[in-house]
């Protein structure tokens, strides 16, 4: 049976490109270990279209040579097999990515297609925690929305530091925080902030990000969260946690220019106050907000009938029908 195999890739294009360089990254890191006490801080420039990247911004299992690692084995297997696929579909818009990066990926597979299937859906879900009416009462682009995803979370000290920063900054905020983590908040925090802030166990993130009162997304930099922020034109403060988070945060700050990273990947009171002040008060924050709005427009055009995604969908139909 001559059935086409089409691979739909969940990782970001920049993270996907790293896979094809895994062996070289491991080799370079091994060499760095012999000359440097802190090799993870060394910077390498091997991904076309991306700025130089320190080893610590890669997933640690990518740069540390460990052939028995399930992650390393899985990536190696996919890198060998993906060139055999009739097409590889990426969950992104081509227009959001550097052309050099796209050209590099095109050289690795037969048909590289950009079709953000998971992002085509409109916001949905119920507002069980009453976030939207509260947001309606806030000024445009004034609210910090905080969410660190579901896979990993910062430590207790970071929750406390973030709460103290929010309290001192005076910025209105909506914090999606599971009930089990509330014990890490300072005593009396929720009572003191009153109606200026809202702490809830869950939100419909796309609905929240689309609300005009949202001024920044304090995020773990998971790929889906970053993409949703881009589609909604919301700047980001990135506290990356693990896996692809660090590279996503680097893209946010250095490639797209639509956010900032917290210092040393740790939420501190002073560091978060500095980030909030930058986004909401400084000229650089205005430029970041303008860049986020411009990238939103790029994504809207990319999603339209004249965007690359529509053309790639036609290509996919042709690949399937010809087999």
TrEMBL record:
Annotated protein name in UniProt: Anthocyanidin 3-O-glucosyltransferase
Source species, domain of life: Eukaryota
Keyword Transferase: yes
Homology family: Belongs to the UDP-glycosyltransferase family.
Residue intervals passing through the bilayer: none
CDD domains in UniProt: GT1_Gtf-like (cd03784)
Entry keyword set: Transferase
A matching Pfam family: UDPGT
GO molecular function: UDP-glycosyltransferase activity
InterPro entries (UniProt xref): UDP_glucos_trans
